[in-house]
Write a structure and sequence with these properties.
The complex is a heterotrimer of chains A (513), B (497) and C (503).
Chain A lengths: L7 H15 L6 H29 L7 E7 L2 E5 L3 H24 L6 H20 L3 H20 L4 H31 L15 H6 L1 H16 L10 H4 L5 H28 L1 H4 L3 H23 L3 H22 L2 H32 L10 H4 L1 H15 L5 H17 L7 H32 L22 H19 L2 H14 L1
Antiparallel strand pairs in A: 1-2
Helix pairs in contact in A: 1-2, 1-4, 2-3, 2-4, 3-4, 3-10, 3-14, 3-19, 4-5, 4-10, 5-6, 5-10, 6-8, 8-10, 8-12, 10-13, 10-14, 12-13, 12-18, 13-14, 13-17, 13-18, 14-16, 14-17, 14-19, 14-20, 16-18, 16-19, 17-18, 17-19
Chain B lengths: L1 E2 L5 H15 L2 H4 L1 H25 L1 E7 L5 E6 L1 H24 L6 H19 L4 H20 L4 H31 L20 H18 L8 H8 L2 H27 L1 H4 L3 H23 L3 H21 L3 H32 L10 H4 L1 H15 L5 H14 L6 H28 L22 H19 L2 H14 L1
Antiparallel strand pairs in B: 1-2, 2-3
Chain C lengths: L6 H16 L4 H29 L3 E5 L8 E5 L1 H20 L1 H7 L5 H20 L3 H20 L4 H32 L4 H14 L3 H19 L7 H8 L2 H27 L1 H6 L2 H22 L3 H21 L3 H30 L18 H15 L5 H14 L6 H27 L7 H12 L2 H19 L2 H12 L3
Antiparallel strand pairs in C: 1-2
Classes of the chains: A mainly alpha (513), B mainly alpha (497), C mainly alpha (503).
Chain lengths: 513, 497, 503
């Protein structure tokens, strides 16, 4: 009965959220707003505490919880292992803060109950992905994630939003369809007869060896299939469009929950279903590595050219996600640890950046880069946090981004420069390091140019004078500022004191890679 | 934190002082207050640095991960750079108390000026490659506001260019750092290098590539061709004290990084005779020549001085690239001399702008009558830069030439000194005309020609004059009495070569 | 012989008699009788299913006094029982859901005719499911066609008339081909009962004589039934037909009738021609490729459609393509997948049509894409039903469509060599295509301003009152879909057992 608690953090938000959907018409006015905030905030906080409790109390291993049997060998099963706890912990930490932020951000909106309903449900579904004990469960919650997030993209109900949500939906379902093929194959070729995650993979070695090329092809298909959510080129097109959604959605979902689920799924699929033994050194590995590298190049370059702030950050996300995928494609323990470190670091960096952009939008309504002149003085805390996030994204030491880049490049060099692999395997990882550094330079360009504008507006732009016709612009309220500051602090913390985290992640890498 | 805690003080003290200046409202109203405060702090800083240099020792500040730590230490190279940095920084600060009274938002300039001082000392005291990299990046970021200070469109553009070139260079170097981290567990600076043959087995090609990337990457800061483009753009738009320290010291940080990398991590022996060394020599010589050429043709004074920096710093790089003791000594001594000289030159240019408003060299006629002392100082340092004995520049050039000839680097042994000679001629060509036109303006230069402030004697104020004087004197004195300096440098050279 | 064994015969007879009796009843009474009858027959079929499951084998039942090999025979097994039960359930819910619309659409005087047609339709479906002789099969095929025509024509609008005529022509073409095939078969084998015919066929094929006639039989029967069930490229009549009939009729026609013919085809493959021979011939591959083509082209046409009903109709074309692809795989697993998809599709299509009706009601009775904008807020349950149906079509986990997809994929992996990759790719692509047009519609439902056109408001208030039947129907269909999605294992097992005893 102990294990039933595993299902709670998944089901509680889903049920709680859906109940909100039906309450849209009940209360009105101020009372309703406050009670809504309390309900939602309390629910999210409670859930995070639950997750924290589970993670701290759980011993590694155990059979987990089998919810029900979907079909013959396909069961829906939850199980905590180290990797799942990283993702779950990350989500549980970020969600309450993001919810707090969105209370203030969405204050003026109508239909708040609907918004928060889906927001909370997404929480539950994402925890479901983190807790998934086998590929079937992961796939199930993966599809559900699409379903609960697309109303959020649709939320503004503008023409743009409709088109964006359609694109999002088509891409996601298309991707899941190909990932489904991967699922079926894993089931067929599984040594244990089911799709449970096992470090080192679950494929029967003999069977797998017989149909090696076919399985490699399917792996590539599934990689791209799951890669849709991880914004892998060419399946990335939905992400910049989805920025039309309200900032809390973009930040949490499309910088953290949805896209990280995609990366997480790929990590699970590669290391725990197929297994790196099978994939290492194959043409499939180089292919997916190349795709990841290309995406990094593409994302960074497009970000520089983009002048709409949120879309710029979206392209930055596309690029950064492929850092994680590159680490995954290295298929070594170090690579896995590095990928996970960037998964964590980037979540904080990107959500901080998006929230800063959202704060500016909320306070001033400005969305384009060239409108941001001189705001650095007016909104010091916001831009201070943005500075931290930007420097971290660039990879300046003392910030979290440097740690993950360090790990990624070391992992790449230990594979490529080691002289142990020959041919393409020797230089592609090294090329990867070059690509990452190029991307870092581009990141510097596209993040710092915003900061320079904000802090050093050119003379004659007249932003510093009140005569420009704006009302006094200030930092947003505490509900939006507190999360920002906390995120910035965490970025610094990870940057300065990453020891414990990296030790934990290296363990995960060691057992899986 | 373990070790000599006092080493942290010269790093942290100016940074804190700078933050105080930036945020304290008392500094915003009266600009002069800020620059005076800065000068005072830097005087104290100079004292702190000298104490640290005397005490010596090491300090582990913080462990970033299990393998990377921020560490400081004081050795020969640190002493050299730190002493130079602290003294020049102080002098330029004194200068700027008066200069900046013509500028706005002095507090911001002074604040960042202080912060950069602290970061630079940290850079000089770095004990391993990672610490070096940290301070290197911080230096770029914190010196950016100095370049941007005027906030005109050109200033912002120049600042961004500076930023991106520097960051690009830093990342190129980072590529090498990542590789080295894989090849060696230790990245602490050790004279003669830390790499072992076993570690590099099978990766020689990659190793050479990584080394080259590091040299080129750090070389961006030092203005090495082909990535020197930021220098001539950034220097003119910054206020004179900023240009001075940019040229005089911040470019030297690139050199420092190269020294540390080549001599204290990679080891000079590993690069000798490789394509990396040849490319390095070629590029530095190219820069020497090109810089002098462009300086010669450039009419705007500050830009001319910027090109001159490009050229002169590559003298240093050339000396380093020869991997030979005498050339090494020549390079290091030129670091000192050029710093003093270039700072003096920029401060001079600033004085002229403030007093007369002239920015172009051809306008600067009759200065001999207006500010004879200042022009005299200018002349002294110009001669030093050209390399006329007994001024300091001669010493460094001599060592460089001798070192080149005995370096056994093939054709370069001869080409090098030849290029140096040509460059010296060009240097004379671009520096001395001002002196000549200043003292001998020519018959067509009528008295009472309208000039800002008239033609009476009008030296720049004491605050501005004294630093120029001190720097020039230093430049000349080191030429006359080079002994102590040279012996110290020879000791260092013996350690690494 | 236990009582249960009579049930198949009873169900067919009851259905027919209800039809006959209804001709003298008024509309309402006919309707109630119809509903009652459907309930009864479904229950009977269910008992048959249980019985067969217990005994573990199928049994034959002679009708009339003519012994084999000339008389009429019925055969009931697990699969037949299961299919009959399912058909009955779906028909019940379809009729229930469409009651109001039917009442509104059809002239009061002719209402009982509608229910007569329904009764006849059910009886012929049951007969097709249970029959064991070819002649009976043909007779009921014709009855089915007539009933179908009647259902379409009942609206008496111009479009319905032309749709009915088109239906009639295409159906007759199919039936005609079927008859030709039957005749040649009788000629060659001398039997009309299925089991003896099979022995004959095996003997002939073993001898190697009559090769061409056998091939002709195979081809002609398949094509005939393929036309009637709407396999690409014989599908042209479907969108018009399903598009212009009453909702009940559309649901029944697309959900059940086409499946009945496919069931008959499967039956003929197993019990007359011998499955091994069919697989051995190239015919299976043709069915496979047409199936895949249908999957793609059906969806592509659907994407281009603006009218929702025609869109759903084209979707049927695509789904029937799935079924034929499954048959075309030529393995046991493939057949199981195909049969399961028959069930899935019946339920889901009925759900879609009935929900769509609910949405049209609150949108001024318009059916095009844009008019339905925001209708989710006017009729939440219907929109929910439509959403569930769409998601099932796309293959969302926990819904029946997912299980179908899974079965198809798993069967592709099992011993099909070259067919595996095209199947999998086609599945993935088709999912994406389905997502495009179905989910696009779903988005439109939920977006846009809440208030529809003024007319809609009036109609909706009228519609909301008396639509408890509609609502019940939608809810039950949703529940059914989810049930199939979540606990499909016993059903799949039953199908497997049923197929094992099918020949």
């Amino acid at each position: 009965m102990n294990n039933i608690i595993l299902a709670l953090p998944v089901l509680l938000p889903i049920l709680g959220g859906s109940s909100l959907l039906f309450s849209e018409r009940r209360l009105r006015g101020k009372v309703r707003d406050i009670s809504l905030e309390f309900f939602v905030g309390g629910l999210v906080l409670l859930n995070s505490l639950l997750v924290a409790g589970i993670l701290l109390g759980q011993r590694a291993g155990g059979d987990g919880l089998v919810l029900f049997r979907l079909f013959s060998n396909l069961t829906v099963q939850f199980r905590i292992d180290r990797m799942g706890s990283v993702f779950a912990g990350l989500i549980a930490f970020l969600w309450p803060l993001a919810t707090l932020y969105s209370f203030e951000y969405m204050k003026e909106e109508k239909r708040k109950a609907t918004f928060f309903a889906y927001y909370v449900m997404t929480y539950g579904v994402t925890v479901g992905i983190a807790f998934a004990g086998n590929l079937t469960t992961l796939y199930l919650f993966y599809e559900m994630l699409t379903l609960v997030t697309f109303p959020l993209v649709l939320f503004p109900l503008s023409k743009e939003a409709m088109r964006a949500s359609r694109t999002y939906l088509y891409f996601s379902i298309g991707g899941a369809a190909f990932a489904f093929i991967g699922l079926v194959f894993v089931l067929s070729f599984s040594a244990t007869g089911n799709t449970a995650f096992r470090p080192g993979g679950v494929l029967d070695p003999k069977l797998a060896a017989e149909s090696r090329n076919l399985l490699l092809f399917i792996y590539v298909l599934a990689f791209f299939g799951f890669g849709v959510k991880a914004a892998l080129f060419p399946c990335h097109a939905w992400l910049p469009k989805a920025t039309v959604a309200p900032t809390p959605v973009t930040a949490l979902l499309h910088a953290v929950a949805v896209v990280k689920s995609g990366a997480f799924a790929i990590l699970r699929f590669t290391y725990f279903s197929f297994g790196t033994e099978f994939l290492r050194g194959s043409w499939a590995q180089w292919l997916v590595m190349g795709a990841a590298l290309f995406t990094i190049l593409f994302g960074s370059t497009m970000a520089v050219r983009e002048v709409h702030w949120k879309r710029r950050l979206a392209y930055s996300t596309i690029s950064n996600l492929s850092y994680i995928l590159f680490g995954a494609a290295l298929m070594t323990p170090l690579g896995m640890a590095a990928a996970l470190s960037h998964l964590t670091a980037h979540a904080f960096m990107k959500i901080c950046s998006f929230f800063c952009a959202g704060a500016v939008m909320h306070q001033t309504g400005k969305t384009y880069i060239y409108q941001l002149d001189g705001l650095g003085k007016r909104m010091p805390v916001t831009f201070g946090c943005l500075t931290v996030a930007s420097l971290s994204l660039m990879g300046i030491p003392l910030f979290a981004g440097f740690i993950s880049k360090w790990n990624l490049c070391r992992a790449a060099f230990s594979l490529g420069g080691s002289g142990a692999v020959s041919g393409i395997g020797a230089w592609l990882p090294c090329a990867g390091v070059v690509v990452i550094l190029y991307s870092a330079l581009m990141t510097g360009i596209y993040m710092l140019s915003v900061l320079v504008r904000a802090y050093f507006p050119g003379r004659g732009t007249g932003v510093l004078s009140a005569a420009s016709g704006e009302a006094a612009v200030t930092d947003p309220g505490w509900k939006m500022l507190v999360p920002l500051v906390i995120f910035a602090a965490v970025i610094l913390l990870i940057g300065l004191h990453s020891g414990p985290l990296m030790a934990f992640l290296t363990e995960i890498g060691g057992e899986a890679g | 934190m373990e070790g000599q805690m006092i080493l942290l003080l010269p790093v942290v003290f100016p940074i804190l002082a700078g933050i105080l200046v930036l945020t304290g409202s008392v500094f915003r109203k009266e600009g002069r207050r800020a620059s005076l405060f800065a000068a005072a702090c830097l005087a104290g800083e100079l004292g702190l640095v000298l104490v640290c240099l005397y005490v010596g020792g090491e300090l582990t500040v913080w462990r970033l991960t299990d393998t990377i730590a921020i560490e400081l230490c004081v050795d020969g190279i640190s002493r050299l750079f730190a002493a130079l940095t602290a003294s020049v920084w102080f002098l330029a600060a004194v200068y700027s108390t008066d200069y900046l009274s013509h500028e706005e938002e002095t507090y911001r300039f002074s604040g960042f000026y202080l912060i950069v001082a602290g970061v630079l000392i940290g850079l000089d005291f770095s004990a391993n490659l990672i610490t070096l990299y940290v301070f290197y990046e911080l230096m770029t970021l914190t010196s950016l506001p100095l370049v941007l200070h005027e906030r005109t469109r050109e200033a912002v553009q120049a600042g961004l260019k500076y930023l991106f070139y520097s960051v690009a260079g830093a990342f190129m170097a980072l590529f090498g750092i990542f590789f080295l981290a894989g090849a060696s567990a230790e990245l602490t600076f050790t004279a003669g290098g830390v790499l072992t043959d076993a570690a590099l087995m099978g990766k020689e090609g990659l190793f050479l590539l990584a080394s080259f990337c590091m040299i080129m990457g750090f070389g961006v800061k030092a203005g090495m061709f082909p990535l020197h483009g930021w220098l001539p753009t950034a220097h003119p738009v910054a206020p004179a004290p900023a240009s001075a320290v940019l040229s005089g010291l911040i470019t030297k940080s690139g050199v420092l990084a190269i020294i540390r990398t080549v001599y204290f991590i990679i080891g000079a022996d590993r690069l000798r005779g490789t394509w990396v060394q040849n490319a390095w020599i070629l590029l530095s010589l190219l820069t020497v020549f090109m810089g002098s050429m462009l300086a010669y043709k450039e009419p705007v004074m500050k830009k001319r001085l910027a090109y001159s920096t490009v050229s002169q710093v590559s003298y240093i790089l050339f000396g380093l690239s020869l991997l030979q003791p005498m050339a090494f000594v020549g390079a290091l001594s030129h670091i000192v001399f050029h710093s003093l000289i270039k700072n003096a030159l920029f401060l001079f240019a600033g004085a002229v702008i403030v007093t007369t408003g002239w920015t172009r060299a051809e306008e600067m006629r009759g200065l001999g009558r207006m500010m004879p002392i200042t022009l005299l100082c200018y002349t002294a340092v110009s001669l030093a830069l050209v390399g006329i004995p007994p001024a300091s520049g001669f010493i460094s050039k001599w060592y460089l030439a001798v070192g080149a000839l005995s370096s056994g680097a093939g054709a370069w042994s001869f080409i090098g000194p030849a290029v140096l000679l040509i460059s010296a001629l060009l240097t004379a060509g671009y520096l001395l005309p001002v002196t000549i036109a200043g003292f001998f303006p020519g018959n067509d230069f009528a008295e009472g020609e309208t000039v800002r402030g008239g033609m009476e004697k009008k030296e720049p104020s004491g605050w501005m004059l004294w630093p120029i004087l001190i720097l020039s004197t230093g430049a000349v004195l080191f030429g006359c009495f080079p002994g102590p300096l040279l012996s110290m440098l020879e000791t260092i050279a013996a350690g690494v070569l | 012989m236990s009582l249960v064994q009579n049930f198949p015969f009873f169900s067919i007879i009851i259905a027919m008699f209800s039809g006959i009796i209804s001709s003298v009843l008024s509309g309402r009474k006919a309707r109630n009788l119809s509903l009652f009858m459907i309930t009864v027959t479904t229950a009977l079929s269910f008992f048959v299913l249980c019985y067969c499951q217990e005994t573990g084998e199928s049994y034959t039942y002679m009708m009339g006094h003519f012994p084999a090999p000339w008389g009429n025979e019925i055969r009931a097994g697990v699969l037949e029982g299961l299919t009959a039960t399912l058909f009955g359930l779906v028909m019940f819910l379809a009729v229930l859901g469409g009651i109001d619309h039917t009442a509104a659409d059809v002239e009061p005087g002719k209402l009982n005719l509608f229910y007569i047609m329904i009764d006849l339709m059910l009886s012929s479906l049951l007969a097709l499911v249970y029959t064991n002789d070819l002649f009976t099969a043909y007779v009921f095929v014709e009855i089915n066609t007539i009933a179908g025509c009647g259902l379409i024509m009942i609206r008496q609008k111009k479009k319905s008339m032309s749709a009915a005529i088109r239906y009639m022509i295409m159906s007759q073409l199919g039936s005609g081909l079927f008859l030709i095939g039957l005749s040649v078969l009788y000629d060659v084998t001398g039997h009309l009962l299925m089991s003896p015919a099979k022995e004959s066929v095996s003997r002939i094929l073993a001898q190697g004589s009559y090769e061409i006639p056998m091939l002709v039989i195979l081809a002609v029967i398949s094509v005939g039934l393929a036309i009637k069930s709407g396999l690409y490229p014989f599908h042209y009549w479907i969108p018009d037909t399903y598009g212009y009939a009453t909702p009940t009729a559309s649901a029944v026609l697309s959900g059940l009738v086409s499946k009945g013919y496919i069931f008959l085809l499967i039956k003929i493959f197993y019990r007359v021609l011998g499955n091994e021979h069919v697989i051995g011939s190239r015919l299976i591959n043709i069915l496979y490729w047409f199936g895949i083509a249908g999957m793609m082209m059906g969806s592509i046409h659907a994407i281009a459609e603006k009218d929702t009903r025609r869109m759903i109709a084209y979707s049927s074309v695509a789904q029937i393509g799935y079924i034929y692809m499954g048959i075309g795989l030529g393995t046991d697993q493939g057949m199981i997948a195909a049969v399961f998809h028959i069930f899935t599709h019946s339920v889901t299509k009925a759900l879609l049509f009935i929900s769509a009706v609910g949405l049209y009601e609150v949108s001024g009775n318009k059916t095009d894409y844009h008019s339905l904008r925001g209708s989710a807020y006017r009729n939440p349950l219907a929109a929910a039903g439509f959403t569930v149906g769409s998601l099932s079509m796309v293959g969302f986990p926990m819904l029946s469509g997912f299980i179908s997809k899974l079965l198809f994929a798993a069967s592709a992996l099992d011993g099909t060599d070259w067919k595996m990759l095209p199947t999998l790719i086609a599945l993935a692509v088709s999912t994406t295509l389905n997502a495009i047009y179905f989910l696009r519609q779903v988005i439109t439902l939920y977006s846009g301003p809440r208030s529809g056109p003024k007319k809609a408001a009036e109609v909706s208030s009228a519609g909301n009152k008396s639509s408890w039947m509609l609502r019940t129907s939608i809810l039950c269909l949703i529940a059914f879909n989810v049930f199939l999605g979540v606990s499909s294992q016993p059903i799949v097992q039953a199908i497997a057992d049923g197929l094992a005893m099918f020949d």
